[in-house]
Amino acid sequence: MLKDCALIAIATGKKVMTLKELGDGLLSITPASIYYHFWGGLLQPRFEEREYNNDFAAWVRHGLHDGVLAERLAVVDPTEFTDLEALRQELAELIEERLEESEFVGWVRGTQQFEFIRSQIVVFDTHQRVERPEELAEWMPHLSTSSIFYHFIDARRRFPAGGEDFSIWLQGFGEDYQGLLEELAAIDPYFGSLAELRHQLVLTFKSYLEK
Questions:
Q1: What is the SS3 assignment for 191?
Q2: Is 173 left (phi over 0), alpha (psi -120 to 50) or beta?
Q3: Angle at Cα 123 formed by Cα 36 and Cα 130, nearest 5°?
Q4: How crowded is the C-beta side of 148, counted as CA atoms within 13 Å?
Q5: How far is CA 183 from its chain centroid?
Q6: Contact call for residues 114 and 20 (beta carbons, < 8 A)
Q7: For 94-142, how does the pLDDT look when each residue is reduced to its tens digit (9 = 90+)?
Q8: Which domain of life is it from (predicted)?
């Protein structure tokens, strides 16, 4: 069963102006907000490549004008963490480390405020069904980018043990597609656009099934 989704942005009412406030806010904000600020940008239509892949790095750079911390935050890959709490801890430690480097940076007021937004996902049934991996490979180029997001990215939040929908489904075919599972596991969905991710999935399925 192939599905589609939309990620709804909801204001939390929490706004900050300094790095110290950002660090404090990160410790108490809902995990859904951390999720949104790392992944929400992928579903927003853009005409140019994002300068920073997460909103925290972007605000630190353009709101606080702290290029040093912005670069540290920019290289944080959320797929490397077991859950959002582990990601929260990493962000908090990076900010704390920066605050310890200079008392001044903690109290500099941003030229613009940072507003914590939380996400809520709405899921739609596409009414498309696939029975075999070959059918999924045929459908892959035609899936919307939001469908790719739901099955390959949001699934990692839904399954505590990790993994994504395509691989979990393929595991039901036993050892026949072990090689494909390994190739899918090697794909990092974070650094790039959803269109690029879809293209990578298309090529991965195509090259494996044509062997």
A1: coil
A2: alpha
A3: 120
A4: 23
A5: 19
A6: no
A7: 999 999 998 888 889 999 999 999 999 999 999 999 999 999 999 999 9
A8: Bacteria
Element (H, E) at 94: helix 84-101
Longest CA–CA separation in the chain, Å: 60
Cβ contact 129:78 at 8 Å: no
Amino acid at 80: E
What DSSP line would sit under 25-71, residue for residue? HHHHS-HHHHHHHHHGGGGS--SS--SSSSHHHHHHHHTS--HHHHH
Structural contact between residues 142 and 28, judged by C-beta atoms closer than 8 angstroms: no
Tokens of residue 196, six digits: 């690029």
Q: Which tokens is 100 given? A: 């310890």
CB hemisphere CA count around 63 (13 angstroms)? 19
